Here is the input.
Amino acid sequence: ADLEYRREGKQIEVLPLPAGIDVGSPYFVREGDGERWRKGPPLERDPATGNLRIPVGLEAVVRKSVLQGTPLELLLVVDGQPRLATIAHKEEEPEPEPDPDPTGAGSGGFDFEAACEAELAALMRPEDPPRASRPPGSTERQRQRQQSREHRRKRDRGVRQEWEYLVCIDFTEVKNPRVRVHTTRPGVDPEAEQGGAHLFAGRDVVLRAWHRKGVGLEATLGGTVGFRSFTYVPDFEAFRGQGAGPKGADTRPPVDPTPYGKRFSGRKADDQPVTLTVAASATQGTGKDAQQIRVAELQHPFRVTDVYLGALRLSVAGTWAPWDRRYGTATSTTPQNPGEEVVITDGADLGLANLELLAGYTVFFTPVYHGERTVTAGSYFGLGVLGTDTAKGLDALTSGHVGLELAVGRDFGIALDFSLRRTQKLRGDLDVGSPVEGRDIDRLGITPAFGVVLNLSPRFWKAVGAARKGVL
Here is the structure.
């Protein structure tokens, strides 16, 4: 079975899935030759029609496969039997000539691509200077790996820089609006530029839309609609033009040369998926009878990915202080030195081991992307909230930590660290075996320590608590 789609330039419309697919059964996706299978996002039904719909995550994968011409396979359960579905790549059909139909099927000579490129040029950020690159690999696989690494480096640099998304919409054809998504710094979000359905959290979205005179646009960004939809109200008087003309003449209102513009602040990942909704309306009637009627509405979904440059940590640390000792007093057993004397009560040779609860922060060396199992390193800084103490057993605010962490995603990491601990040291005028004579034997001091820290984010602990609550 083949997944079907329609293509117009870079716009890919994925058609509904066959009705025989079992919604409750898992399915798996494989991109490219020799890649591993991975589980696909959950399937859903359209509440209006009851038909199966392509999930947002899978729709972006299909668009990417079509645009790049790479193989894509899906292993699904259809009518109770496992079936292999593939993307059937077709030759791109030439775009039809503009239709002079007065209901708004033609563009009237408006060059949407050129208008969008002009807006992009006005917003474009300067490119980074080119970096020295390695010679291309000798095999196709090596060249693909090199290209993949370069794309990751460009994305990692880009998420730390200033730029926006530009969304261009051609609404001069209310029957067939076109959407283009660009970034104002090249290469920082290939998924958005290729599939048009992705945003990095916190990035502003600049909207530019073109329409005909007599048509008003209003745009919003928000909500949780995860599938692209388009509604058109046909045979509306405002799109038929005014007055009579020669047979076959285009009597529609001319294209408005001034674009509709709006800027949206960056979305949070918790808001995802979000949808850009653009509604077109026109005035019907005249005088007191005039009223604004919505004639078309476009909903364009975006999947929002959060990017983490650092993460809070609630950690457990095991430390060893090689120069720390625990001192006490004991009665002398020698007749030459009666009374009490200083003795070492613990850790005479190997120092002292301690267990601590830490609160801290990790600064990642490379960005970590939500939903990706990014493995990276980072600098860890922590404060001992609660730990063992030489005199009290437990004490608060015991130490300061700095270390090197190996992180897997945002929520988990292991660090090797160096710390300075608050401890009780022997007074400077005393030594082991010195007579005490009723004096205090120790004073507040600082000692270095080394340790291993298990770093977990607050969200990890929250998930553990929710899992325990569900089990209980």
Observations:
- The chain has five helices and 27 strands.
- Helices lie at 56-68, 112-123, 140-158, 190-195, 458-471.
